[in-house]
Here is the input.
Amino acid sequence: MNVRKSYLLTLLLSTCLFVPLQGNESPDRTPRDDWSEEQLLELANSVHQNNLTIDTHMDVPLVLKRPGFDISKEHSWQDHANQVDFPRMKKGGIDGGFFVVFEGQGPLTHEGRLKAINSGFETVDLIHTTVSKNADIASIATTSQDAYSIREQGKHVVFIGIENGYTIGRNIDLLKEYYDKGVRYFGVTHVKNNDLADSSTDPDGNLHMGLSDLGKAAIEECNRLGMMVDISHSSDKTAWDILELSATPVIASHSGCYACYPHPRNLNDALLREIAHRGGVVQMNMFSAYMMDVPKNEERSAAFKKWFETYRSGRELNESEKKASLEEYIALNKKYPKPLSSVSAVVDHIDHMVKVMGVDHIGISGDFDGGGGVEESMDIGQMMPITIEMLRRGYTEEDLRKFWGANVMRVLDACEEYAKGLEASS
Ligand SMILES: [Zn+2]
Here is the structure.
């Protein structure tokens, strides 16, 4: 307890003293309006070449489960309905990031939980197998030092994160098993409430009024292990509960600003400020529907409803049905393209975060293969437009070093140090 209190005090003091929460006032942040596209591209390339570049939320494990999918081959989002592979990471100047162990929220029953737990561990193993098969171009990272050294070796960095606490059911001990298998962030909820906490988007409203007792125990266990806690998808009350309880800084692995677009998935200014005050980071999400009003398209809705009824009713699909399901999905997306937000909107959210939190608390996540993507930045190979737009608006190379990886690595270090401190004092 003492260790935790003194750590918190040190953290708060150092945060208050050294973190410029009005970081946007820097005089050298002058827009580069007079620069040509070539000049901006050249500087953007050098930013990506000289710095660790991490996307904190990639749902590519969902795609790894497709029969025959090879992450070492280049695909296209239009023809293959997939947004992440190693060749495109290289093209986009992205070293790597967090591959996400995602479980959709199912029933809060013994069977439902067991299924989610088994599937969660299967996904972790699949990530390890995939990286092993590509050992010449990628390695698993569990610390910031790993990330920097894997990058030095010219390889891609693969961290592992969890999206949805459903993956532990009601068994807190499983967090240690996930940690031992390399998982370094724990996203408490997804789009519906679970045993641990309330989600920001459950149509039935609150179940626990924030964190449940089990959820509180999960946060304490994450702190003890040195695992980052991810508040993306949590209800505001859940997020406040986590911030109050967590002994270490938290992350939002993929979230935007409520002040820019009032969607319950986005974070209001008070939450942004508190995350920053406690040393955490918010990784700007590139999910279009959280940045704009999506115009109604009855034909698209009807076509996808039919597709869901055919292929996502819960029954197991055989191989030919899986193939047909993917082919029809790709064809439907071509016929009824999804309305997309813009690179400019993504950077508007980042501008707002800078005003509220300062440059030390911001990062970037595409949410690729999980619904993310905006016009001109539809896959991991198209991250350069984001950097170019930030440079155009006057962000410095040092700002971008922080946004693209240094900030979130600082949080990972803080969590690891806290866990080591606890161990040393026990
Ligand atoms: Zn998500």
Remarks:
- Confidence is low (pLDDT under 50) at residues 5-25.
- Residues 163, 233, 254, 370 surround zinc ion (CB under 6 Å).
